[in-house]
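Sequence only, no structure available. Ideas?
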Amino acid sequence: MSESVLRNGSVDGFLLLEDGTLFHGQLPAAYPPTVAEVVFTTNMTGYQEVFTDPSFRGQIVVMTAPQIGNYGINEEDTESSRPQVAGVVTRELSRTYSNWRATGGLPEWLAAAGVPVLDGVDTRRLTRHLRSGGVMSGVMAVGSTPTVEAITALDACPPMEGLDLASVISTEVRYSWGDPAAALHVVAYDFGIKRNSLRLLESAGCRVTVVPAATPAQEVLALKPDGVFLSNGPGDPAAVGYAPAAVRMLAESGVPIFGICLGHQLLAIAYGGRTEKMPFGHRGGNQPVRDLSTGRVLITAQNHGFAVAGSDGAIEGSDELEVTHLNLNDGTVEGLRHRSLPLFGVQYHPEASPGPHDARGHFEEFLEAVRERATQDEPSA
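Reply:
I predicted one. Tokens follow.
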């Protein structure tokens, strides 16, 4: 089948979902078939942060905002070293941009990273379909009708359940971030860490040692941290089987621990909880969350397809943990805390990159515990 070359240099393309639903659009070039889980995000801005978020590893991301790319890209707003998404679906991809911070255009930036963009898609219809049927695997390819090659690739796409993507995206070697002379020392587990988490810890006076996802607890304790940070990350938390035992050993040493997103889920698993796949997850910068202790509602940035099983009463399977936050849209668990140890986690992204800053205070809550730990470890006069 010959591809149809359009006037702007693009070619006909399509997205085929695993349930057989077909969406037409245009690809900027003749990419090979791209298969991944298809999800949507409701962010109106912050597309560069979205595309470089390691939590989107192995996913085709549908942008619900109607126009993407109109303020370009820059060198400062990346959350990792490169785009992490498998593909992007847009209604209108802007080929011109205007912003004083911009250093280039979004289409060229994605093309340089080998990330295909299917443009001209009815993203409203696609989003409503995913909300009704749940996220599912899909294949993006050139042409107007699916080829045998595309269908074969789609059939071979593994489901997200059971995938340990944290070990794939994690750093392979330990590295340092921030001022080496800083008084406070935080060890951060990299399950797919975002750079803004590191920036916030640095700005609060911490030196950070970032360690690979499978680092044993004994190695972390040997670094004598004042606190441990468990980062966000992609994939199925239940598949990260090497982490819960390490998390529990660290927690029972008394070191303060703060987990976000995947880190929050691993805290729950470490203390007997479990996670479950959500129909279409939470992805965007407008998720309302209630703090159960104060009644305050936070508007939060989120990106996850799994949730900790439980309700406002308890974490299923764990008497040692209590629920601290709930999602107001669907009642899912958004925060937890250990009843006696300095350990807590939230499902959303308090580093807010992109997104609102309502939850930024969780970092200060963690740092208060870190400072207290550092004071306890100081030698007496």
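The mean pLDDT is 94.
Hope that gets you unstuck.
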